[in-house]
Queue: 3 jobs
Job 1
Amino acid sequence: MATNQIFLDWKRCGKKKYCLMNVQDFSLEQIYASGQPFRWKRIEKNHFLIQSAGFWTVAIQKEGALYLCETTLKECRSVWENYFDLARDYGMLKANFAKADEHLEKATRFGDGIRILRQDIFETIITFIISSNNHIPRIKGSVAKLCEFAGEKLGEYDGEILYAFPSAEQMLAMSQEQWSAIKLGYREKYLKETARMIAEREIAFEEIAKLDTQEGQKKLRLLSGVGEKVADCILLFSMGKYDAFPVDTWMEKVMKKQYGLSQNSKATQIRFAGVERFGAFAGIAQQYLFFYERENSKRRD
DNA sequence: GCCCAGGTACGTC
DNA sequence: GACGTACATGGG
């Protein structure tokens, strides 16, 4: 499946404010709710303070346009286009998914503004280790504290001090009191060990991005706290490996209910079935399915 | 109190 | 290799 390149024409529209007109297949609200980023703060509808690695911006979406504030044109092009995967034609991806099956067609209509972010690799490794068997509000709290204790101060916005995501070395420099205050529970030892392995170059994660998905899986799983699911999230949400298919409790439900997998099938089998069925962009299909399933279950509650 | 959360590590068979 | 179970913590 070929994907067209979208032409991106940033316009300056104020002091440190840039704008992309006619942003298609894009919704800040849906990306926020899609379970990928843990460092977005919702200010109001379609208006977010976004922090990623050592960068931050204020993003506003209105009348079909995306505005990025408190940033530079250079940064819009070098950081945020890449982060939001803005040059990719999601319309074409969705059209192809919609042809494949009815349920996926519904899911792409429901989550029509979903994007697969290309997040910083180290940040994604750490945040998704924290995410395992954990609740999103609690994950966000832990991540915020980690940045506050170990990250460099980047600036201030609306009275809030902003921090970069820390490096492995900076994490390892924290006191035990700080580690405890992050309230990672049993994940604390995973993070310490993973940070150590990365700081000591036992695992060169930049190299993993060059491998194919299978090989990347194997390497990532050498990190402490990284199993099959977290490895898939890292591959998909930071390395652009679109054939990675993370299977969590929600995806288990969908695959059993909608795609005929037996009740006793395990995550590994479901993952293979997903890639088999949805192909080279299975991970993107997964994200539409995940979002549709979880959002609709919220409403029934 | 119970169940669950974008699961993983570890021991057992 | 497949399976069961313990695991910190807080929200519903």
Job 2
Amino acid sequence: MSEVISKTDVAAERISAFVSRVERLEADKDVIAKDIKEVYLEAKGSGFDVPTLRKIVALRRKDKDKRDEELSLLELYMSAIGM
Amino acid sequence: MSEVISKTDVAAERISAFVSRVERLEADKDVIAKDIKEVYLEAKGSGFDVPTLRKIVALRRKDKDKRDEELSLLELYMSAIGM
Amino acid sequence: MSEVISKTDVAAERISAFVSRVERLEADKDVIAKDIKEVYLEAKGSGFDVPTLRKIVALRRKDKDKRDEELSLLELYMSAIGM
Amino acid sequence: MSEVISKTDVAAERISAFVSRVERLEADKDVIAKDIKEVYLEAKGSGFDVPTLRKIVALRRKDKDKRDEELSLLELYMSAIGM
DNA sequence: CCATCTGCAAATTAAC
DNA sequence: GTTAATTTGCAGATGG
């Protein structure tokens, strides 16, 4: 018993697959986002000011980005001189 | 040899702990975000239009959100008028 | 009698003007917000459940937003697979 | 020809009326919100920084003491963890 | 009054 | 590079 499977059917299959993969990953991301919220809630429950904690995290991230940049520049120079 | 541990020391410990936990979770989240990007890149490599795929994912999320609101307008009206 | 009017003076004037305009509009908005509250209060006085009424309004707004998105998922799929 | 008009019909009528009134008011509010946006856009077109203007408007509402409080709290936390 | 929640604005990221 | 869209943070509003 032969099946007729059109090209668009195949494309639809592949689209579904991509969409599913993204949705699974986004579900995971949502879980983590929820976890982060819970950490802040716990901090709040301990009497800390959440917006201030968020600011610290943000500042440290900025610092890290800058450090990463500097590091990769160093690595570039080093590779440039064959180290 | 006794140690003097001030309240602010203790608070500093706890702040550091909260910040570390958040940073670990955010690192995980970044990994997933990167994975999602890779899926879209792969789809693009297969000849699919990424913005369209993103729209599909977004619309499906909206639909789901609406479904999750499992109180229908009708039911709301009915409860509002005491049925 | 000549006046010395610096650029910063001019800028200050214009900033004040923008701020005033915004503040006037926000005052108007506050009046309307108050009106809305009064409608709900009146409904409550008539024995209706305010949170439910709010939900109805919110749901109807969502529906409208969705309708305004007149691209259906199907059409997106079709364009995505090149039909 | 007599009509049977139930109590729930009457209630439904009144609910519709309340909902309509709210929706009209919210439409007005949306117009004003749009106007405010336009003011900011115009300011931007004149070379002013919109977030700063927004801050001015917000600050004029806010209490200065609270601003100082937020700032000193941030500094306290940061010094606590040695930043 | 406190906790929750929706809506608004800022910022980051993507598309053109 | 500039607009557009998504994501995230914050505030003000609402209900208990």
Job 3
Amino acid sequence: MDNVLFEKLARFVDLSAADKHILDSIVEGRRIVPPGRDIIADGDNPDRVHLILDGFACRYRIMPDGQRTITAYLIPGDICDLHVFLLNAMDHSVGTLSECRVAEISRASLAHISKNHPNVWTALLIASLVDQAVLREWLTNIGRRNAAKRIAHLLSELLVRLEVVGRVAGGAFDLPITQSDLADTAGLSSVHVNRSLKILRDEGLVTLHRNRLMIHDVEGLKAFAEFDPRYLHLLERIAGDRLRAAI
Amino acid sequence: MDNVLFEKLARFVDLSAADKHILDSIVEGRRIVPPGRDIIADGDNPDRVHLILDGFACRYRIMPDGQRTITAYLIPGDICDLHVFLLNAMDHSVGTLSECRVAEISRASLAHISKNHPNVWTALLIASLVDQAVLREWLTNIGRRNAAKRIAHLLSELLVRLEVVGRVAGGAFDLPITQSDLADTAGLSSVHVNRSLKILRDEGLVTLHRNRLMIHDVEGLKAFAEFDPRYLHLLERIAGDRLRAAI
DNA sequence: CGTTTGATTGACACGAGTCAACACCAGTGG
DNA sequence: CCACTGGTGTTGACTCGTGTCAATCAAACG
């Protein structure tokens, strides 16, 4: 049914019926978090890991002077805070942008998986490496592209990621973020984000209105952004084959 | 002896004698790579994973227009390309900055570890999460700090990381990179890197001369850079305890 | 030695930030 | 039903940080 985590991990590695069963059974404590709330905050160290079932969230950090940086967008299937299980405490926060359905996974369940379901554990490692690849791409995006291209690249990425989880229809998708959120993501001021969005609009590429992004020219947008989806490592089933072949 | 990988992973998780033995035995094919060469290149898909035993390397990417971005510095104990084992092909390159001693680990060895040494596998996952944390920090660094602070922050990070692997003596360490490398790391032009280094010099914080960084005022540098080492997650032994306690 | 690569500095251009005014809703309460 | 409010989006004028171009210098190298 709605085991978005299984679907995500199964894209990376062949998972057995037992693997699927364990992923079905560990997802406990579903709850609804309203928009604009923290799912987990900087410094927290709870005994559960959080998984987005539905909705839109972001990783962010507040700097000493009050500035905020958004370092990732989380969509259905993404785990918020594996850190909690493996590291001491959160070094950043995860907050909702829209209302989110969130599930919780206990430490004990994760420990069980790490011992008894190596393929699942490997899939989590792969997911972590893909997250790294995305962060590297954002780094080059912010470091080396101008404002309009940065935003175009970001929107292209969201388009592709949301397509995979079936949240795009007719070239449009919900994007419940403000221009100020975009600014904190792209390392820009909100005023300049506004100007850049106007450029994308005038170029006939996209319009962002009332939390909905309409893409008028998908290929044009990707070309404008120099977007190359390789880094998202979609459809990496090869890794699973390799695990088996190598033994 | 020089099993830097074991030392690194043992900082995260309790490793057994068997774990140590496997880590000693999988490291094959040591070789020397001269400075300025690729250890592994974008698009490669070899059958071995590379580990830095000694020296200084970087992850980088060349964009279509020829621009380069450096997304990470690799020091002894760092694995270059777990991606090779788990994902299809490299989406970036790893090149040496100084001469490097590099070891190779076969896919079969990694597959063996994933099945039979869950604690080692977990330690690799933790290392991956720490790498993510570093990338997030770089993102806020480039996105929200001015040129001089960016560079100061980068140097502070290198200081701490190199201290851990014993490469710092008397507040100085080898830094075999050009100002142009720094520029591609910080998202700046090399001219502006030069100007920013002059500021740090004039402030009495650091001098970078002949590939050697001399830090004159460690606390001053960290304060200037607003450097908070939490994100490096040094000394995270807790994770290992937690793994055991959770079961 | 000449040659090359990297460091340094100045003059100028330009992209992005800041400040400020105003428009546009969505929600609230009278 | 309307006035009020606060958050968000939009636009212009001006400032400032960083990029670009170019000349010079220093060090490394064959």
